[in-house]
Amino acid sequence: MAKRLFDIVTDSCCDMTAAYYAENAVDYVNLGFTMNNVNYGGEDGEKIDVKEFYQKLRDGAMPTTYQVTSESAKEHIEAHLEKGRDVLVLTFSSALSGTYGSFDVAARQLGEKYPDRKIFVVDSLCACMGQGLFLDYVVKKADAGATIEETRDYAEDLKLHICHHFTVDNLFHLKRGGRVSGMTAIVGSILKIKPVMHVSDEGKLTVVGKSMGRRKALHALFENMMATQDVGENEPVYIAHADCIEDAEYLKTLIAQKLPKAEILIGDIGAVIGSHAGAGTIAIFNKGTKR
User: Fold this and answer.
1) What confidence tens digit (pLDDT) does each residue in 269-291 have?
2) Residue 111's CATH number
3) Is the pLDDT of residue 182 over 60?
4) Is residue 187 pLDDT above 90, yes or no?
5) 237 and 280 co-located in one domain
6) Which residues, including other chains, have CB under 8 Å from residue 151's CB and lie 6 or more apart?
C-alpha cells in the first residue's frame, strides 16, 4: 500500500464503526441529537447503545438532531493542517443537512490562514452507510497513492454511482421530517403500505415505489439494486438496519445468491439517521451504473 499523501475527514453520518475509522486513519466529526432533554453524540454528548436508542423510539421518544457547526468542522480540519497535511473532506448530503455548508465555511476560513495547504470539501450527496461506502472507495483510492486532486476528482465522479435503496417500517417518522404527507402516513399505516425509496442525484430522499407488506418491500429493494448494480469481484455491498437484523440477514442471502463474489457487510443505522427514518428501517447500498 502506498503512503497516503493527505488526510481524510468526514462525519458520523457515514454510520461506519469506530474500528473502521481508526484502522483507516479517517478523522470524523460527530453529529448529535437531543432526546428526552438529554444531549447525545456530538463532540461531548452522552453515549447510548443503538438497541436502547431504537427501543426508546418504539416507546415514543421524539429525538431532534443537530448538524456539525462550522467551529467544530474548523477544529477537525485545522488539527491536520497544523501538522503540515492537506485535507480532503467528505460530507453528508447537503440536501439532508447543513453539515456540508459548515465544512465549506470552515475550509474557506482556514484556506486564508493556511495558504500553502490544500483543503477540498466534497458533498457526497450520500447518506448513512451509502456515505460510508463512498468513503471506503475513496479511502482505497487514496491508499493506492493518488494525489489529493486525483482523489477529489475520483470522488466527484463516483458519488452518483453510489446507490441507496431503502424502506421504512413506520411512515410517521418520515411524515414528521416532511418527507411524506400526514394523510399518506395515516393511509399507508392502515393499509400496511411500505414505501420503496432511494436517494436521488440531488441527494434527496425520493419514493420510487410502494409495496403491500414488509416482505414485498424487501424484495423490491433487492430487485431495484440488481437492476443497475455494478459490483465487481470482492467489491462491497452494505446492508444497514435499524434494529431489524433478521431482515438484514434475509437480504444478505438474496444478494449472495446473485453476487456470490461480492463482499456483503451488515451494519447499524446510527441514531442520527435513525431519528428521521425510525426503527425497522432497512437499506442496501452498492455501486451501480446510475442511481
Assistant:
1) 999 999 989 999 999 999 999 99
2) 3.40.50.10170
3) no
4) no
5) yes
6) 6, 88, 138, 141, 142
Pair 188, 227 in one domain: yes
Q: Rounded to an integer, what distance in angstroms lies between the CA atom of residue 153 and that of residue 176?
A: 36
Specify the higher pLDDT residue, 23 or 213.
23
Average pLDDT over residues 160-172: 89
Q: CA 181, 187, 192, 194: dihedral to nearest 10 degrees?
A: -20
Cα 164 to Cα 45: distance, rounded to the nearest angstrom: 29
Residue 16, CA distances (Å) to 22, 132, 169, 234 in order: 11, 6, 22, 19
Strand partners, 46: 40
C-alpha cell read off for 269: 443505522
In this structure, is residue 2 part of a structural domain?
no
Q: Which residues, other chains included, contact 37 with Cβ-Cβ below 8 Å and sequence gap of 6+?
A: none
- Please calculate the CA angle 73-13-178 and round it to the nearest 5 degrees: 105
Partner residues linked to 69 by β-bridges:
none
- Specify the amino acid at residue 7: D
Domain of residue 22, residue span: 7-159
Pick from 229, 236, 230, 244: nearest CA to 277: 244
Judge if 146 and 28 occupy the same domain.
yes
Do 59 and 52 meet the contact criterion of CB atoms below 8 Å apart?
Answer: no
If you average pLDDT over residues 9-34, what whole number do you get?
96
Among residues 164, 236, 238, the alpha carbon closest in space to that of 204 is found at 164
Q: Is residue 257 part of a domain?
A: yes
φ/ψ bin of 278: left (φ > 0), alpha (ψ from -120 to 50), beta (otherwise): left
- What cell does 289 get? 451504473
Q: What is the pLDDT of residues 202-245, one digit of tens each?
A: 999 888 888 888 999 999 999 999 999 999 999 999 999 999 99
In angstroms, rounded to a whole number, what is the distance separating the alpha carbons of residues 139 and 112?
27
Q: Where are the alpha helices (DSSP H) in 114-158?
A: 128-143, 148-158
